[in-house]
Specification:
This protein is an alpha+beta fold and 328 residues long. The protein has one domain. 25% of the residues lie in helices and 9% in strands. The strands form two sheets. It has a four-stranded antiparallel sheet with strand order 1-2-7-3, sandwiched between helices. The chain has a three-stranded mixed sheet with strand order 5-4-6, covered by helices on one side. The longest helix has 16 residues. The protein is globular and about 50 Å long.
């Protein structure tokens, strides 16, 4: 079943960013059952930014409406919302992270949002969000920013043990450490490249048909519309672990640790460095760089996740993870 408020004409690019965000806050509380305190925290994070939202409404031109998304999903026979996954993860629209070759969903120690934040099917992703703000928004919902290996495991269809070669980061500057670790990681996984939807690259299966605003100069709020699709509008664009839009639509922030005490999955509150991937910007139209699940990008716009100047732009969003506490 698809959830969400009815999309009005005013909500489709005709109102102000503040009005769009107000509608989004109400939908977040309705769909995810947020408490007033949680919603207040989310509101305060948005209020600290001039740009967080679903794109500049004055220039954003989404290629599909939420109503069209819902119709498309229903006609495909896809169903969003799974009571079994909800029971395991303890939250709506989350999927367990595990390795199906030797684990069951019930054995999972963590879950990931099935859709880009706000994690609501047929809703537009939130963009123009810094990594710091993404981490804070996840925390406000009782979740956390995903570690890179968790996002990659969700995409590849199997969660593997953390694979960060921390020894390559010792005694060198962070940017050198990240380069060394990235190259080692990519060499390890290059022979087994995989995309969320399968083992070979395919065009048109994910939300990769977005185009830049005509006057977009690379990162201007006044000239670059987000132009994203509603989340989940391509039902075949999902991983074996039932996670959607990992290839295509918005790019996504995640945490890249270079020391064990920076791992979000181990409870770190200081976190590591920014890793970003997954955007429509690099796929069918532009093909700017590699996009297979476990490929790690160069240190683009690199900062600590919690730095006040962490990167934000018109095609960059995020999704959250949570850590499951098992009953004794």
């Amino acid at each position: 079943m698809l959830l969400g408020l009815q999309w009005s004409a005013l909500a489709h690019g005709q109102n102000t960013l503040a009005e769009q965000n107000q509608r989004l806050f109400l939908e977040l509380q309705q769909v995810h059952g947020l408490t007033d305190a949680q919603l207040s925290k989310i509101r305060s994070i948005f209020a600290g930014s001039r740009v967080i939202g679903q794109g500049n409404p004055a220039i954003t031109r989404h290629p599909m409406t939420p109503e069209q998304c819902r119709t498309r999903v229903q006609e495909s026979g896809a169903t969003y919302g799974n009571p079994t996954l909800e029971r395991i993860c303890g939250a709506k629209f989350m999927a367990p992270l595990y390795d199906p070759s030797h684990e069951s969903p019930e054995s999972s120690k963590a879950c990931i949002d099935q859709f880009e934040f706000p994690d609501i099917p047929c809703e537009y992703p939130v963009v123009w969000v810094k990594a710091k703000e993404a981490a804070e928004l996840c925390e406000a919902e009782g979740k956390r920013l995903c570690d890179a290996h968790e996002w990659e495991g969700a995409c590849d269809g199997r969660l593997e043990a953390p694979d960060y070669p921390f020894e390559l980061a010792k005694g060198v500057a962070p940017e050198v450490a990240i380069r060394n670790m990235r190259l080692a990681h990519n060499r390890q996984y290059a022979p087994s490249q995989r995309w969320s939807y399968g083992p070979t690259y395919q065009r048109g299966i994910c939300a990769t048909g977005s185009t830049k605003s005509a006057d977009c100069n690379g990162g201007s709020w006044t000239q670059c519309g987000s132009n994203t699709y509603p989340a989940g509008s391509f039902p075949a664009c999902h991983s074996p672990l039932n996670v959607y839009d990992l290839n295509g639509n918005a790019a996504e922030h995640m945490n890249l640790p270079i020391t064990p005490d920076q791992m979000s999955s181990r409870g770190s509150k200081t976190l590591g460095y920014t890793e970003m991937k997954g955007s429509w910007f690099i796929f069918d139209t532009y093909r700017a760089h590699e996009d297979w699940c476990r490929w790690r990008a160069p240190f683009w716009h690199g900062t600590r996740v919690l730095a006040s100047d962490s990167h934000a732009n018109y095609h960059l969003g995020f999704r959250c993870c949570n850590t499951l506490t098992k009953s004794p």
